[in-house]
Amino acid sequence: EDNPDDIPAATKSPFNHQLMKVVTITDIKKASKRIEDYVLQFPLVKLKHCVDDPSVSIYLKFENLQPIASFKLRAAGNSLLKRFEDNPDDIPDRVWTARYCYGCC
User: Fold this and answer.
1) Which candidate in 4, 9, 65, 68 could, as Cys together with 17 as Cys, close a disulfide (CB 3.0–4.6 Å)?
2) In sequence order, which ranges of the chain are alpha helices (DSSP H)?
3) How far does Cα 74 stand from its chain's mean position?
4) Phi, psi of 39 (to 5 degrees)
5) Is there a contact between 1 and 18 (Cβ–Cβ < 8 Å)?
6) Nearest to 41 by CA among 62, 23, 20
7) Torsion sign, CA atoms 103, 8, 77, 57
């Protein structure tokens, strides 16, 4: 078993010290392509007058406008579609997603 002290901070899970897969640009591009037919595209909206430093730009992405009103569509959709690609004979009858951290913040 890996010694948690030997694992770089960027690959540690804050929950259990297990190694996490490093996500690459290629992974992101594949995920984007995989879900493109299932998610709506929205422009980023620049937030104005929220900081005193004019060199700081903050952009908002309104995922609440997705049909299910959350980022869950992207993450869960990509995960399921990837699973179906990897195991086409292992398609579940139904899927349940949940907010595991609802009310944590």
Assistant:
1) 4
2) 25-35, 72-86
3) 6
4) -120, 155
5) no
6) 62
7) positive
Q: Are 74 and 47 in contact (CB under 8 A)?
A: no
The C-alpha atoms of residue 79 and residue 91 are separated, in whole angstroms, by: 12
Please tell me the distance from the alpha carbon of residue 35 to that of residue 30, in angstroms, as a whole number: 9
Q: Which helix (H) or strand (E) holds 45?
A: strand 45-47
Full-model pTM: 0.57
Which DSSP category does 63 fall into?
Answer: G
Give CA–CA dist 25/42, Å, rounded. 21
| 62-87 pLDDT, tens digit each | 888 887 777 778 888 888 888 888 88
Q: What's the token pair of residue 79?
A: 């995960």
